[in-house]
Amino acid sequence: MTTRTDEFEELRPLLFSIAYRILGSVTEAEDAVQESWLRYQAYPGEPAEPKAFLSAVVTRISIDVLRSARVRREAYVGRWFPEPLLTDPYQDPERSAELADSLSTAALLLLERLSPLERAVFVLRDVFAFDFPEIAAAVERSEAACRQLAVRARRHMDEGRPRFAADRAEREHLAERFFDAFREGDVDGLRDLLAADAQLVGDSGGKAPLWGNGIFGAANVARALTSLSEPFTRIGGVFEPHEVNGQPGAIFRDRDGKVVNTWTLDIADGRIQTIRAVLNPDKLGHVGPVADAWAVIRETNRARTAPPLPS
Asked: Where in the numbering of this chain does the RNA polymerase sigma-70 region domain appear (predicted)?
């Protein structure tokens, strides 16, 4: 006999995936899912459809959290990026393209432009294909209002998407070449893979070292990357190419295996457009034990000025 616990655990991946796309935060999404469980436990009746009921509950909680979070993000130090997600727990072969696209850092940043209601409606409709009656019940608006919200949200999202995004195979091939060139310190190879107006930007929240507002232009980014790779490796640092938010990326670790930062690569038009680094330690704890990034950069800088090791 199916219990509420069984029903909830079966739906947990979906609930987390909805909450994460609305909030852009792993920790806040996990909290929203946990609060949904508590409300489900306390609900006196028997929902006719647990999926619709719990999806509505987690959506409403996420909307409330997002409204509060937007105030905090306005006072955030520097650029705000979503917390990196290594694996989406929810899989649906029929929605795989929509799920992957909506998970990318670029898409989540576009979602930040929407109002909380627009964001929730877009996620439920365009990503998870909920019907409008279900969406209306979840956000407590009329079906007509939800249709209008969906149209506005879709228009804002379409305006910000790259015109010629790469397919998955092309992204993976380009990322492999990029990380090979980075590992080898090949400045010319890196420059050839970068868009002319490429940028290297980061989110430290004021709690980790950062390169000002960013580094811009293919030549500048290539030089910055090659100046980093060799000394970081020399002090025992490693980087692991890894899918992050459904896109090519990497996890950087110190010699003890602690997480220094994560990267995601935005790829379009056959070139790497943007490298986004998350360095804020508050956003990395779910990836693994977090390194002291200040100590790592100090040691890396010392290695950069030290004479090369004998071959």
From this structure: 8-70
The reply to whether 59 falls in a domain is yes
CB 266 within 8 A of CB 274: yes
Q: What domain range includes position 192?
A: 168-305
Find the helix or strand (DSSP H, E) in which 262 lies: strand 259-268
pLDDT tens across 86-138, in order?
999 999 999 998 999 999 999 999 999 999 999 999 999 999 999 999 999 99
How is residue 23 written in tokens?
């909030």
Q: At what angle do helices 132-139 and 50-74 cross, to 10 degrees?
A: 50
113 lies in a domain? yes
Confidence of residue 164 (pLDDT cuts 50, 70, 90): low
| Residue 310 located in a structural domain | no
Q: How confident is the model at residue 309 (pLDDT cuts 50, 70, 90)?
A: low
CA distance 238 to 46: 51
